[in-house]
Amino acid sequence: MNDLDVALIKSQVLSEALPYIRRFAGSTFVIKHGGNAMAGGAIDEAAALDSFARDVVLLASVGIKVVVVHGGGPQIGEMLGRLGIASQFVNGLRVTDSATLEVARMVLMGKVNPEIVGAINKFAPLAIGLSGADTGLIVASRAQGDLGFVGEVQSVQPDLIIRLLEQGLIPVVATVAVDVMGQAYNINADTVAGAIAGAIGAEKLIYLTNVEGIYANWPEQDSLIRRASSAEVGSLVASGAISEGMIPKLTSCLHALESGVSSAHILDGRVEHSLLLEIFTDSGVGTMVTREEAS
Q1: Please, are residues 194 and 247 in contact by the beta-carbon 8 Å criterion?
Q2: Is residue 40's pLDDT more than 60?
Q3: What digits encode the pLDDT tens for the residues 137-176?
């Protein structure tokens, strides 16, 4: 392929993107950036983070308001392993004792959050790092079950995020929050992303993970679903066909749609520029879930 062919392909992609850029200008997207999305892709983790940051800045540059919510499961697991602390999961949620909570806070707020903020600000000085504890952004409560200091979202006070978005900034939220008594909790990032998206009336909720989307019969690759309604996804969850790690993601997805979010998207974040391909092309690359039945 010569330089002219490459230039032609790029111009075709830009032309296809134009109506989507016009349609979504002024809209708000909440993007959940998962640690798993950076591992195992075609490029190394540093390059993958740079690619993600560049895509986020591009979205902001065409008038889309972006909130990034991040997890850090692999990074927390790695640090726990170094410290000789075993990890245990129940329905995709990490059981969190006091020692695990301290590690989670250290990793999420001291490592992952500054790395994402720094990566975005390398391309444009727009990102602001936050945690759920800042200005009471998220009020937590203890999650049901024997999970220790794993929290649920009791409420979201989105004023700070809304003010930052109005100034053209990109909030980057670490999912540590406190309850009304000041006790800290680690909250699943999928849950937080869905709650924030609902609270601020986001147009789209986008999950970047390490699978292509939702599978009707995991792990059969040919059972990938490209588009589904919330009712269809709810039935899949109830049937037990969904993998354990996907349950919190789909549960938060359904809650966000119930709260007024127009669509939720599950993408393979290991694919370079999957975020742009899903939003700005006709075919997309992941699974889109809407409140309405798929046509």
Answers
A1: no
A2: no
A3: 999 999 988 899 999 999 999 999 999 999 999 999 999 9
- How does residue 281 score in pLDDT terms, banded at 50, 70 and 90? confident
Number of domains the chain is built from: 1
The pTM for the full model equals: 0.92
In a domain, 173, yes or no: yes
Q: Tell me, yes or no, whether 266 lies in a domain.
A: yes
CA distance 171 to 160: 9
Indicate the pairing of strand 150-156 with strand 184-187.
parallel
- Structural domain that includes position 199: 25-290
Domain membership flag for residue 50: yes
Cβ atoms of 131 and 147 within 8 Å: the answer is: no
Residues 6+ apart with CB under 8 A from 122: 50, 53
* 52 within some domain: yes
DSSP 121-157: HHHSTTEEEEETTGGGSEEEEEPSSS-BSEEEEEEE-
Check residue 44 and give its pLDDT. 77
| Residues 78, 73: Cα–Cα separation, whole Å | 9
Angle at 165 between CA 174 and CA 126, to 5 degrees: 70
CATH number of the domain where residue 132 is located:
3.40.1160.10
pLDDT for 213 beyond 80: yes
